[in-house]
Task: inverse folding
């Protein structure tokens, strides 16, 4: 018990350190506006990837409609600040709840499907959300929701990300998280162990959607605009790519995936046509050399480093 | 009038006598299931008392696993009723049936194969865990005390089944016999009143089967539960069961003690082959 608390405090200390370093670098203008923008984008992508990982990685439900929930958060948040003139924290909470509620409504019927069918259903739902927004003039329709104030800063997005990551970590290491893992591993056996599989699937889906909503609010309040074109299914695939790159079911994997892919996009921003090629090549190499993703379903930890040093040079144990 | 009264009184007395003798745990009344035109199980009457060790045998395709699935809520019977511990099972989902106090293993092992052995058992404790989602996320006192309790109990179970040294191994890497043992350990972690074993000796050698025979008896006494067993291995069934039901083509053709079943003509014809006597 004490050991877990100690580890949590240690992790929190590390977060403070990371934050301090980057904040100082930003203040000293060593990190310029372009990279600061990418730092914010990394934080947003980490939230998106690790929340999608809750659905796809932990619970094993293949959802590819995450951009839809991102959009709901972005627009609802913007309505609250711009149209209703409410403070930013209220908008964040509203965007989170709205996306979570929508996730709950959509999850109830669709999570009865499995595998490819669920993927197609969620893909369709993501598009439905986008098309709906496209046709609502109240939020700007096809020209997008403009005039959103920049209220997101590196400080607030970083700490919101940390809170969400701790939430997901603690969720995974609880009976509720284990129930989700059990569903991924074997749904019939999970059912026989007294686990209400529908309840936990909907729970994971709702939480994942809610966090995507949080990311959406932060997103629209950084880029001054919420535009339907930012929330196409390509965006959903981007997020999915991050999760798969890091390893389905690994939170540290999702974080790494989000960081790596955001960096690749940032470096290749000047050569947009190269971006997709590098992206695709990364995925092809990954699928050929390491189909389970960088970390598989394991978490990056001190023990993993110990294991790695042991394995180097020796016999590699794996599939 | 007088006759009717005495008849009613007799019936009541009989029921009382039954109740005091042993509590009826599982009761199947005229249970049938129809898949399209196929009547997989017909008018099955069956009961298990508290603490009993009952076997269910029959040739391949006789409907044993179907009967199992109806008892555990995977299928709903087309006709008839299944009562467990005074509650009606019909119409309940299988997780609810497990929560009533029934646990099962599978003919083809269904472990959480990519998770650790310890986690496999911990998951089975889930329905007894008291903290809710918010408490899990903020990690209050209840979370830690419950987690400690679950971890401790799970390790105890693993020790009973001699799996403690594999606690952190991935379940799919265990040898076959140990996977079977883990499945039983996991079923017991739900703290059932009735344990249903679907061909626990499948794929085991004679030595392992013998160990299993002793283990089943021991589990029954140690955990004070009833056991229903589907099995092909005659030495196991005859050695361990106190009462046996025999199914053939969905019909129950015999019921009785192992000795009676061994000498029952119909059973010998149907199951052991015509010349077995």
Result:
């Amino acid at each position: 018990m004490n050991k877990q608390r100690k580890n949590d405090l240690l992790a929190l200390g590390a977060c403070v350190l990371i934050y301090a370093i980057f904040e100082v670098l930003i203040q000293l203008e060593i990190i310029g506006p372009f990279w600061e923008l990418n730092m914010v984008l990394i934080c947003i992508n980490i939230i998106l990837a690790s929340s999608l990982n809750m659905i796809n990685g932990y619970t094993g439900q293949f959802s590819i409609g995450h951009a839809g929930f991102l959009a709901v958060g972005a627009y609802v948040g913007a309505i609250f600040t711009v149209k209703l003139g409410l403070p930013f924290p209220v908008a964040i909470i509203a965007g989170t709840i709205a996306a979570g509620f929508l996730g709950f409504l959509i999850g109830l019927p669709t999570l009865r499907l499995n595998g490819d069918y669920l993927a197609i259903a969620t893909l369709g739902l993501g598009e439905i959300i986008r098309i709906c927004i496209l046709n609502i003039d109240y939020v700007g329709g096809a020209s997008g929701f403009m005039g959103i104030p920049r209220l997101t800063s590196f400080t607030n997005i970083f700490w919101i990300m940390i809170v969400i990551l701790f939430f997901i970590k603690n969720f995974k290491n609880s009976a509720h998280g284990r129930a989700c893992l059990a569903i991924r591993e074997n749904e019939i056996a999970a059912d026989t162990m007294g686990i209400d599989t529908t309840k936990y699937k909907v729970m994971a889906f709702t939480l994942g959607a809610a966090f995507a909503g949080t990311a959406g609010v932060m997103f629209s309040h950084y880029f001054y605009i919420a535009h339907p074109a930012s929330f196409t299914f390509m965006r959903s695939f981007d997020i999915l790519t991050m999760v798969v790159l890091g390893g389905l079911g690994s939170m540290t994997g999702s974080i790494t995936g989000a960081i790596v892919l955001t960096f690749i996009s940032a470096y290749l921003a000047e050569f947009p046509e190269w971006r997709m090629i590098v992206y695709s090549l990364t995925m092809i190499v990954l699928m050929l050399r390491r189909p389970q993703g960088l970390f598989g379903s394991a978490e990056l930890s001190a023990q993993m480093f110990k294991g790695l040093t042991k394995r180097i040079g020796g016999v590699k144990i794996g599939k | 009038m007088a006759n009717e009264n005495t008849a009613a009184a007799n019936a009541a007395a009989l029921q009382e006598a039954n109740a005091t003798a042993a509590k009826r745990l599982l009761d199947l009344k005229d249970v049938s299931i129809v898949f399209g035109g196929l009547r997989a199980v017909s008018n099955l009457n069956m009961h298990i008392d508290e603490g009993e060790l009952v076997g269910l045998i029959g040739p391949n395709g006789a409907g044993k696993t179907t009967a199992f699935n109806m008892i555990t809520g995977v299928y709903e019977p087309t006709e008839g009723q299944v009562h467990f511990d005074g509650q009606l099972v019909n119409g309940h989902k299988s997780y609810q049936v497990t929560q009533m106090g029934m646990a099962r293993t599978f003919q083809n092992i269904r472990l959480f194969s990519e998770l650790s052995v310890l986690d496999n058992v911990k998951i089975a404790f889930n329905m007894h865990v008291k903290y809710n989602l918010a408490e899990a996320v903020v990690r209050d006192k209840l979370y830690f005390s419950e987690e400690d309790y679950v971890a401790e109990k799970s390790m105890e179970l693993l020790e009973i089944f001699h799996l403690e040294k594999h606690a952190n191994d991935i379940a799919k890497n265990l040898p076959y016999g140990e996977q079977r043992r883990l499945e039983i350990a996991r079923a017991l972690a739900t703290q059932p009143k009735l344990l249903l074993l679907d061909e626990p000796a499948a794929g085991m050698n004679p030595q392992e089967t013998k160990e299993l025979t002793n283990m089943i008896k021991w589990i029954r006494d140690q955990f004070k539960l009833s056991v229903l067993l589907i099995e092909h291995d005659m030495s196991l069934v005859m050695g361990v069961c106190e009462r046996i039901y025999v199914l053939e083509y969905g019909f129950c053709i015999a019921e009785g003690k192992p000795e009676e079943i061994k000498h029952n003509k119909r059973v010998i014809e149907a199951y052991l082959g015509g010349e077995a006597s």
Remarks:
- Residues 32-239 of chain A form one domain.
